Amino acid sequence: MEEDGFIGVFDSGVGGLSVWSEIVRQLPHARTVYVADQAHVPYGCRSLMEVRAFAEVITRFLLDQGAKIIVIASNTTSAAALYHLRERFPDVPFVGMEPALKPAIERTRTGAVGVMATPATFQGGLFANLVKRYSGDVCLLCQPCPGLVEAVEAGALDCAETEVLLKKYLGPMVDADVDQLVLGCTHYPFLRPLIQRLVNPGTTVIDPAAPVARQVAKVLAERGTRGPSSRHSNPHGNRNGKHVFFTSNDVSSFTHRIRQLLSNSLADGPNVRPLAWLEDRLEMDPGWDEER
Ligand code: DGL
User: Fold this and answer.
1) Is 177 left (phi over 0), alpha (psi -120 to 50) or beta?
2) What is the whole-number distance in angstroms between the Cα of residue 193 and the centre of ligand 1?
3) Best residue among 40, 45, 52, 74 to mutate for probing ligand 1, ranked by most atoms within 8 Å of CB
4) Which atom of ligand 1 is nearest to the CA of 15?
5) Ligand 1 atom nearest to CA at 186
6) The model scores a pTM over 0.85
7) Measured from the CA of 16, which atom of ligand 1 is nearest?
C-alpha cells in the first residue's frame, strides 16, 4: 500500500512520537517521515500566528519530499493551523489532533472532566468549538500546563520537579472528583505513568493517539495509494529504511530521546537527520548520509 509516497508527521518536538508509534503499530508497512521542530519547541507558549507560520513551512517541506498525507501530531499546531493548512493546500489530506472531549463527556460518571493542554491550545477556535458542541452541563476543568513539554523534551519523565508540576496541575482535578482526564497535548502520554499515580484511582486517562491513527488509515484507504504531490527528492535514501526523523535542532540528543521514549522499538536505531531553518523555508543537508 505504501509504495507511493509516505506519511508525513510533525510536531514541535518529541510529543508527536506518541502518535507516530500508534500509526506504525496500526500500519506496519507504512513509510513515514517525522519532523520535530525542536529549534522552536515549545510551541504552546507562542502566538497562534507564529505557530501557523512554522506549520506552513514544515508542511511545504514534507510535501516537497513526497508526503501523501500530513498528520499534525500536535494539538497546539492543529489549534493554530489545521483550518489554515486545509485552505492553503486543498488537495492534501490532513489529519489533526483535538482534545478528546466528546468521549470524556460521554463516559463521565462523576460529571467532572479534566483537560490538560498547552496555553495556545486553549486559546484556539478549535477548542472553543469543542466546548460549545459537547460540554453540556458537565463540569469542565481546563488546565494549561506550561513546563510539561519541556520536561518531556528533557526526558524528565519521572523526576521530582516534574512531579511537583503535575501535582500543581492535577490537584484541582483530584479535588473536583474528575473521573475522565483528557491529555490534550501529544507530549503528555509520555508522562502517563506519573499522571496515573497522582490522580484518583479509577480515573480514565484519555490519549487520542489510537483514534487518530485509525483516521489516518481510513483517509489513506479512501484516497488510495497515490500521493498528492510530486516527489523532488527521496528522504528515505538508499539505506534509510522505512522511517526517517528530522530535527531542526541537535541530531544526537533527538536520537537519544527517541531511543528513550520509544524503548528502542526501532530495530536498527532511529535514522535521524538535521534540518535547517533558512528564513522561511526548511532545508536538509543532502550529504548527511554519506558523511556518517
Ligand atoms: N506536542 C504539541 C501539542 O500537542 C506541542 C506542544 C508544544 O510545543 O508546546 O500540543
Assistant:
1) left
2) 19
3) 74
4) 1
5) 4
6) yes
7) 1
- Lining residues, ligand 1, CB within 6 Å: 11-12, 15, 41-44, 74-76, 118, 121, 149, 185-187
Helices 209-223, 17-26: inter-axial angle, 10-degree rounding? 50
Tally of CB atoms within 10 A around 162 = 19
- Residue 266's pLDDT band, with cuts at 50, 70 and 90, is confident
pLDDT tens for 194-235 read: 999 999 999 999 999 999 999 999 999 998 754 444 444 556
Kind of pairing, strands 32-36 and 94-95?
A: unpaired
- Cβ proximity of 100 and 206 under 8 Å: yes
Whole-number Å distance, alpha carbon 233 to ligand 1 midpoint, is: 28
CB distance 40 to 13 below 8 Å: no
Question: How many CB atoms are closer than 10 A to CB 143?
Answer: 18
Query: Is the pLDDT score of 9 beyond 80?
Result: yes
10: cell is 510533525
| The three three-digit cell numbers of residue 40, written as one number | 522552536
Looking at the DSSP bridge assignments, the partners of residue 140 are 113
H or E element: which one contains 53?
helix 48-65
3 state DSSP class of 183: strand
Cα-based distances in Å from 38 to 16, 21, 89, 167, 179: 12, 19, 24, 27, 34
* Cα torsion 102, 134, 186, 113: sign: negative
Cβ atoms < 10 Å from Cβ of 8: 28
